[in-house]
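Notebook entry, structure prediction.
Reason for the run: the old model in the group folder had no record of what sequence produced it. Starting over properly, with the input documented here first.
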Amino acid sequence: MNPTLDLDLDAAGSVPVYEQLRAQIADQARGGGLPVGFRLPTVRGLAEELGIAANTVAKAYRALEVDGVIETRGRHGTFIAAVGGSAMREAAGAAQAYAERVRRLGLDREAALSLVEDAFRAQGAP
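New structure, fully documented this time:
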């Protein structure tokens, strides 16, 4: 199952659109609907898709970044960030890099996970 960004904005509502966007992305990230490393659409792309101003999306993304929900990696894009301590953030980043690398190598999920299990066994981990 591929995660998707599921947004339902109400432009006529009492809550500003940028806040609705911020809250919905944060809820999906914290609830596991958007996994760590999930790449969000560009500001312009999401604005066009939703039919809202790019500045509105940019404002929501800035707030999410300040909250630690997302991280921008320069030209590589904007991603759901790891939450928790620095060890968890580092491990999540390593896991994301591993997943990207095995995909480029043409391995499927089962093979990739098997390799991780083998590595843990080799280090004596249960």
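Summary: The chain has two domains: 8-81, 82-126.
The old model has been moved to the deprecated folder.
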